[in-house]
Amino acid sequence: MRPFLRQIEFGTLFRRVRRSGVRRRSSFLPDLDSLESRRLLSVQFSWLGYTGTDLTGPTAAPGPDGTQDLHIQVTGLPSSSTVSAVTITGPAPSQTYPSGFSWTYGITDPSGAVNPTAGASVQVLMESSTTAADVYFSPIVQQINSRGQISDATLPSNSSLAVTVTYDGGQTANYTFTGSQTGATDPAPVDVAPTLPALSYPTNTATFVPQNTTTGDASITLTGLPGGSTTLTNVVLSDEAGLAWEDPESYGRYELGLSIAYQDNNTQATITFPPYRDEAGSTMTLSYQLSSGSTEYVEDIAVPSSDHTYRSLLYPGTYPISSTPLMLSPGGSENMVTYTNSSDQKVTVDIQTLLNDAVSGTYNNFEFTAGTYQIDEVLDLQAPMILQGVGSSADVEFMFSSTSQNPSSTGLYGAINIRSSHVTLENFSISFGQSSVDLGPTNEPGTAGIIDAFDVNAYQQALVDVNVTGLTIHAAFDSLYSDKGSYGDSLDPNGYLTMPSIIMGNFDSGTIENNTVYGGTITVQFGPWTISGNTFVGSVAGTLSPGVFGVDNGHDVTIQNNTATDPSPSADGQLERFMAANWGGYNISIVGNSVSENVGVLPDDEVNATEEILPESFGVAYEGSTRATAIASSSGSYNRRIIAIDSSELFGQVQGAGNWTLFILDGSHSGTAIKVTQAYESSGDTWTYFMLASPLPQGTFDFSIASSYNTFTVSGNMIDTSGTVSTALVLGSYFDDVQVNGNTFKGDQTVGTNGWFSQAIRISPGGAQISGASTLGTYNPNYYATIVSMFGVVISGNTIDDPIGGVHIWVFVGYGVPTTYGRTYTNVALNNNKFIYTYKNENIIHMGDGSLDGPNPSEFSQLVNGTVEYTSAASYFVDPRDISVTTSGNTINWSGVSPPASDVQIDATKVNGVLYDSTTYATSTSPPLLQVVKK
């Protein structure tokens, strides 16, 4: 991918180095007495006892619990091997220990389930290309007796343990030993809590200064500083959208950084920054140190609701855009245009020569008269300008006759390359003189758009006020995707991909409105972006277009009143998806759009793109207990606003701001999400500190921190998946605050050759992936650390009309996604939705596990006296507390057909406060799940 397009991923926003004390942990090293050894090849086991590490807890759920783990080292593994599973067994169940002692890591079941019996978790650390692995497990294991009572028990001293390690190729190594310990393990050694930074909440005043309409910058004034030679250091400003500014640069880019000016003998500082979004009415967070000390200062800054910050005001051009356009006509040959100069003389010139005149301000407003403009060069827009056609887009055509290029020599991507803010393209059409084009680098197919904002060689400036309006774009196919052997039938029978229509770079913003596009995805990053009134029609003959819209790291993005159809996929190519988002985001709205006529995956396709709307963000940084952390306390409003976590216990690096959210997974505050405003590391990466937008609740509980979507709205859309096997909306990532309301999801009885069928809504929290370069080595062989969290999902007032799948809510356990225990990862409200069906359907609402060959009572855990327990009758463990659903007011209209005996299925789910843990059918006459209004 491009350097800037994927420069900013989880945990790589920016780095702050802080000071902190060195952590000291107690060590407890029992001796090893080998009882029996069965080694495969030269594999050897070493019992190390307590070595000051806390990575696991007493259940299958991941993460530290505040007590030290027991440590076994495995050496002599084959070079470059990967440990795929570990099982450890200790004392068997007894009256004292009713559940016995067992620990599990990885896939230990032919079905693909990870830790299927819900044994206490094991952590494996293994660097790549090494022959050694470190195995950690908690000495404390949760016990459940026959009365359903839960307690914790610590592994007794001198216990015999049997360890089995499975690695590449299914080979295993076994060891049985007893740890002859010099002291009791009960209680287990407590983990040493992290040390909080020296923290203060200053009495000096921070005031927001309204945006300067000349420069476009906003400011914050700090008064009451010590003065003299003291200045500010390590200054970071962040906002509610997860965006941040640092001195002198942010995200590696100076134009995004903040600057600091001092007044009154350094007793006052003015911090100036370019706004990324409208901050009116929001709260920003400022942190800094003084050059004379190491204390961390934190301040909340309330932005008045009247103080708007318009990003479009940034980076004004040296020369204002002329209000009088220069009239251009086709010049009779490639790249040539004709105009009348100030001396009333007709001039014919290369179009790029005129566009270059915008740099000096000679001309920067161009109006093209009716006709076809033959072009075989990249149009390079290096200054603010307007390119507009007279009349409608049908009257003015830019025909690119040859656009194959080598960006390493031209420095440019695309057919029209935008390298300046304040650029408008309006009322003309773009087409190509050949069926295939190459607009980007030969080793990166599909990364260049017809209209593109990337410059290979020049420094990439953040672009604002980019407007693409009223264009008609006839895409070609990407010639780099012509290799059927490489891309094969998974894309298209011919292996061709439609060239993207528009790709805007990171930190760009503007509008894309009222365009008509024949093939080719529009992709934007960051924001704000308004994308409205556009019409998409199919793809390009013989090609596949992955989707209509793509949003990466988006904030303040509105996709509204757009239309997408694919009337003849066999003739015009296939349009697979309406919208895909990646890497989290803030305030994304999908409103009033219409999707119909075969947009989606067709019945005979086998591609993994069966979602019309799909936001994805799976990066998890941490999951564990508050007992393994330190939480700041004070008497002021900053009480419990900072939480410190040992960096070695994170799943990956977390630095700077970003779309990070803290999710509380159990206890009385389960389902609460708190925005992380800043994160930074101590000196030597010993600790990572998370600054929260609001206080952490009191008490002890488990929580996770992950990159998420905050405020995601899908409202008033009409999505018709008839004739396809696509699902209208799929939510399977980290979310906080999702509103799905007032939509119509229509479908039919189409079933694909592979058994797929369309659904209206699928909420399927699956595997959470290790975020960034993990400090934990190989966490597990399938890259999944836990299950994603989805809080505040409200599905209300929608109409579901005839799809085979109505609303399906399940945690996807298995196939590499680990078993968990005791935590709630998904909270959904399903209220006042209307279902309309013209055929008997038992698949209208389905809640619970949906993996590993489908629901079956023998596959699940059971309820014993109200307590979830794994039983020998089940082949794997599914905890119904994973999903909590509240539901009321949903109705069904059976139109001209007698209803089936049952139409709601519940497996391993908590519904309206009641735990269901075996396959249960609730008939349509049993409200509040689904109330019949008409037969």
List the helices and strands and how they pair.
Blueprint: E1 17-18, E2 31-38, E3 44-50, E4 70-75, E5 83-89, E6 102-106, E7 120-125, E8 133-137, E9 140-144, E10 150-154, E11 160-167, E12 171-180, E13 199-200, E14 206-209, E15 218-223, E16 232-238, E17 244-246, E18 259-263, E19 268-273, E20 283-290, E21 296-302, E22 326-330, E23 336-340, E24 346-350, H1 351-356, E25 365-368, E26 371-375, E27 379-381, E28 385-389, E29 396-400, H2 407-410, E30 416-418, E31 423-426, E32 429-432, E33 436-437, E34 451-452, E35 466-469, E36 472-474, E37 477-478, H3 484-487, E38 497-498, E39 502-503, E40 510-513, E41 516-518, E42 522-525, E43 529-532, E44 535-537, E45 544-545, E46 549-552, E47 555-560, E48 563-565, H4 569-572, E49 574-575, E50 579-582, E51 585-591, E52 594-596, E53 611-616, E54 619-625, E55 630-631, E56 642-646, E57 660-664, E58 673-682, E59 687-692, E60 702-707, E61 709-715, E62 718-720, E63 727-731, E64 735-741, E65 744-746, E66 759-763, E67 767-770, E68 784-787, E69 790-796, E70 799-801, E71 805-809, E72 826-831, E73 834-837, E74 845-847, E75 862-864, E76 867-869, ...
Parallel strand pairs: 1-58, 6-7, 13-21, 22-25, 25-28, 26-29, 27-30, 28-31, 29-32, 30-34, 31-35, 32-36, 33-37, 34-39, 35-40, 36-41, 39-42, 40-43, 41-44, 42-46, 43-47, 44-48, 45-49, 46-50, 47-51, 48-52, 50-53, 51-61, 52-62, 53-63, 54-67, 61-64, 62-65, 63-66, 64-69, 65-70, 66-71, 69-72, 70-73, 71-74, ...
Antiparallel strand pairs: 2-12, 3-4, 4-8, 5-6, 5-11, 7-8, 9-10, 11-12, 14-15, 15-19, 16-17, 16-20, 18-19, 20-21, 22-23, 23-24, 37-38, 54-60, 55-56, 56-59, 57-58, 57-60, 58-59, 67-68, 75-76, 79-82, 80-81
